[in-house]
Specification:
Helices cover about 5% and strands about 65% of the residues. The protein is mainly beta. Strands 1, 2, 3, 4, 5, 6, 7, 8, 9, 10, 11, 12 and 13 form a 13-stranded antiparallel β-sheet that branches. The chain is elongated, with a radius of gyration of 20 Å.
Length: about 250
């Protein structure tokens, strides 16, 4: 019965709350990905973001990012890594204070560059069970810029150049990892997340609240790693706070 429950959880992780497909990247399994807990690994992955930031009103943020990652196991149970990604991010309107109504055109920030760095630590409880901590920080190197049409309450229409800038976030998770037959590894646990950014407008929108920040701070994450061929492996992971985000990556250990 326990095996059936575990397999059901693994299958459901990527699809829970799928209509609400917020971390800025995969936390990863507690054990890490370096070979025998030491040495180098590299990875390529895809990130689908869907979360909410608070400003003048709650803003729905969506994005798709492809990324490359490299990490190094300093010792058994301790690993550091860095990540760089490229993609787009969208803030769904309306934008700005209540006396403005932005048209249905969203604020789209294409060609965004995301960087992240983090660490993973874990400790075995028994040969098939371990507990661990993950911590990472993320930052967008460039601004997202778009032109949107603003309509004031007096019906005056104006074209605005709007930017989302100085976006950063920090995430920390505590996970339990279970080793299953055939090399499959599953993990899950709670995590905390906080992020901020800034929205600006030219010409200025009177009363615009520029600072945006995380809507919810506490959530849950979980995933699994499936061995492929030789030293390749596939990891799939999801995070849930008020919405659901998902990522997958293929790793290679040296």
């Amino acid at each position: 019965m326990k095996k059936i429950i575990l397999w059901a959880l693994l299958i459901l992780i990527p699809f829970v709350a799928a209509e609400n497909l917020c971390a800025q990247g995969m936390l990863g399994r507690p054990q890490g990905y370096s070979r025998d807990g030491k040495g180098l690994y590299t990875a390529a992955g895809f990130l689908s973001i869907r979360h909410i930031l608070d400003g003048d009103r709650p803003y729905l943020i969506t994005g798709e990012i492809i990324y490359s990652e490299a990490g190094y196991g300093m010792s058994a149970g301790f690993e550091i890594y860095g990540r760089i990604g490229f993609g787009k991010k969208v803030i769904s309107g309306p934008l700005g204070p209540a006396d403005y109504l932005i048209s249905s055109t969203d604020l789209r920030g294409d060609d965004r560059i995301l960087t992240a760095a983090g660490l993973r630590w874990s400790h075995p409880i028994n040969p098939s069970l371990r507990v661990g901590l993950s911590l990472q920080g993320s930052y967008y190197l460039n601004d997202g810029t778009d032109e949107v049409l603003g309509v004031r309450k007096d019906f005056k229409r104006t074209l605005y150049e709007m930017k989302i800038k100085r976006e950063w976030s920090i995430e920390g998770g505590m996970g339990i990892q279970i080793d299953l037959p055939k090399g499959l590894k599953a993990y899950a646990g709670p995590y905390v997340n906080y992020g901020e950014g800034k929205i600006t407008s030219q010409p200025p929108i009177y009363g615009l609240k520029e600072k945006i920040k995380s809507h919810h701070l506490i959530g849950a994450y979980g995933g699994f790693t499936l061995p492929l061929v030789k030293r390749f492996a596939l990891t799939s992971e999801g995070w849930y706070t008020d919405t659901f985000s998902w990522s997958c990556m293929i790793t290679y250990t040296y």
